[in-house]
Design brief:
It is built from 13 helices and 4 strands. With about 350 residues, the chain is an alpha+beta fold. It has a 4-stranded antiparallel sheet, with helices on both faces. A hairpin with a 3-residue loop joins β2 and β3. About 10% of the residues have low confidence.
Amino acid sequence: MKHLILLGFLSMLLFNCNNSNKKEYTAFGKQMEASKHPGKKLMETNCYTCHSPTASHDDRIAPPMVAIKKHYINNETTKAQFITSILSWINNPNLEDAKMFGAVKRFGIMPKQAFPEETITHIADYMFDYDIEEPEWFEDHFNEEKGRRKGKGKGKGKGKGRGEKQGQAMQKQQANVDLKTLSYGERGLKYALTTKAVLGKSLMETIQKKGNLEALVFCSEKAYPLTDSMSLVHNAIIKRVSDKPRNKNNLANAKELTYINSFKNDINNNKEPKSIVDLSETKVHVYYPILTNTMCLQCHGKSDQDIKKPTLNKLASLYPQDKATGYGVNQVRGVWSITFDR
């Protein structure tokens, strides 16, 4: 009898282990499947400039992609309907068709951009099928909104959060304390992304209110002061440098050129770029690529194809020695160069 009980226990244990391994394998397989989906890279390249999952609540210039997913998908939504809705919005963003009224009130209507239909289809297909990275504050913020709407909003996806107000406080606390607990590479990247968020928010506001030509004036007059202000915030030296600079002050030095070429090789070989960390006796130097997306091409694309004539004329006026054109999508335009104390 004891042997039968022991055999039964061992059988149950073996079944549970096999079932657990199967679940772990399934989760791993799903993750690998997601990483290979073309929509993932296209979303990161084309959407994360504005819809970053890492920007804080206060420094955002647009809602995170997971918010779009939750507002556009409910239990009855099919993938075909979701793709059609996203394509329709991208082709004609307007107030009447908006589904995210809070985002429109805060950020304004998304500027119309010329994305290929295939690109948006891949992105929407990926968004529908897979979990999307979300900010730590997001889920409770979304649930608060849903509560204010008396439970009318339903969405798909999982997450973890602290609530809108708690999330804001946590982000400020992270900026002051947690960054120093990160690895050097993660810390330098965080400095770059928060600076990018500040620059991007101001740039998008200028585009929305005054148009592309005034955005060029903004870049020429305000980009340096804003970057310097973020250097003070983080007690670091934060620069954007390039092998093909628009402003000669952004010309990369010999070491930075080496890293630019290294990142270009990564992109050409379909490798995900990672921060490069270079340590000196007392300083940390972190480098991360600046990649182009479709929106960038309006000012950095091909002069006979992507950049409109008024923009070309304004560029010639502001930057007589401009070299920062001729790019395609997902190309290395330069690097973030971050330096701080060890």
